[in-house]
Amino acid sequence: MKKRKKNFSGKGKWDKTPRPEEGAVKAKKHLGQHFLTDESIAERIAGTLGFSGYSKVLEIGPGMGVLTKYLLQKEAEVHVVEIDTESVMYLTENFPNLHGRIHEQDFLKYDFSGVFGKEQYAVIGNFPYNISSQIVFKVLENRQLVPEFSGMFQKEVALRICETHGSKTYGILSVLVQAFYEAEYLFTVPPSVFNPPPKVDSGVLRLRRKDNIELPCDERLFFRVVKMAFGQRRKTLRNSLKSFNLPDNVREDTIFGQRPEQLSTEAFIDLTLKIQPYAISDQR
């Protein structure tokens, strides 16, 4: 029996970086691929979904299916969306029970109403760092159909999404996500369990949609106010929202003397209600 050679890094240490198996997909830097190699973590991520009120799941960027196989053990109809042709070929060959449910598409551009119709479905994945924020915004656009969302992000992004007001890392994603979902940071994942290893820690979070996602203010204006406020986060709201040309008696309200990170999601809703009579809500 031929022994497997140990890999020497040339720096006086044995290189413990996991090597891809024969026939495995090569990670592509331009797609931000870092394949999870730790089975226990994959199983743990799959276990973050509660499967309450829905029976369909969409996994983003399954790669070689380390998370997929644990999702398939659940009582759910699993769909995967993958932009990498090589990964699609691997999944097609190794996961025959996914036949007809592998979508070779760009998640950010694809309309999944043709797949799920008006049915509820969860979204999960080991998300590429370079588009993770865009994935969150896409989920927010489809929040009426997505009751649960969980997965792995760069740790600082996951923490930012779950952060509460008063923190320097609290920002646009924090406010917009928490307006519609309960956000929970679950656990941290080290670089060593990926191939290739990223340069930073990863973090797994879970979002569960609130019972009531109807805002009492104009929704489009709410998004606009939040983005404008954090666009100049060092300024008070009186200055960052100056373009609304609010009357002096409105601008004198104490809320306008605060900075955006001081406002909770509920306070941003109140702020939007104060601005609403004077703003054009169909602009962002």
How would you describe what is shown here?
- It is a single chain.
- The protein is α/β, with parallel strands linked by helices.
- The protein has two domains: 29-209, Vaccinia Virus protein VP39 (Rossmann fold, 3-Layer(aba) Sandwich), CATH 3.40.50.150; 219-278, rRNA adenine dimethylase, C-terminal domain (Helicase, Ruva Protein, domain 3, Orthogonal Bundle).
- It is 30% helix and 16% strand.
- It is built from eleven helices and nine strands.
- The chain has helices at 39-46, 68-71, 85-94, 113-116, 132-141, 155-162, 172-180, 219-231, 237-240, 248-251, 265-275, and strands at 35-36, 56-60, 77-81, 102-103, 121-126, 148-154, 181-189, 194-195, 202-209.
- The strands form two sheets. It has a seven-stranded mixed sheet with strand order 4-3-2-5-6-9-7, sandwiched between helices. It has a two-stranded antiparallel ribbon with strand order 1-8.
- Helix 5 (132-141) links the parallel strand 5 (121-126) and strand 6 (148-154).
- It is elongated.
- It catalyses: adenosine(1518)/adenosine(1519) in 16S rRNA + 4 S-adenosyl-L-methionine = N(6)-dimethyladenosine(1518)/N(6)-dimethyladenosine(1519) in 16S rRNA + 4 S-adenosyl-L-homocysteine + 4 H(+).
- Residues 12-25 have a biased composition (Basic and acidic residues).
- Keywords: Cytoplasm, Methyltransferase, RNA-binding, rRNA processing, S-adenosyl-L-methionine, Transferase.
- Its main location: cytoplasm.
- It comes from Autumnicola tepida.
